[in-house]
Amino acid sequence: xxxxxxxxxxxxxxxxxxxxxxxxxxxxxxxxxxxxxxxxxxxxxxxxxxxxxxxxxxxxxxxxxxxxxxxxxxxxxxxxxxxxxxxxxxxxxxxxxxxxxxxxxxxxxxxxxxxxxx
Length: 118
Known about the structure:
Strand content: over 45%
Oligomer: single chain
């Protein structure tokens, strides 16, 4: 199982970034996938989750209306579109696979830095 994340970087407040997580080594469409983030001194938190078909998505209250999670099952890729970014969105972002029986994350991406600053 491998995840390769891309798309992070530095953006000004109010700007946008799009993250991608290209996966391999498993049947991507069979798994719920999530994006998490972790800021210095804080616990890792779930940002968004999407079911295997993409039909259902959920978001943390802090990002609702600003972030959109999506997936391309044909290319085994997970996306996170982030708009109206705020300084408090600064964090390392991780894509994650959810193990279906336990509902817990069993594989993590390497993480990618997103910094929102003027």
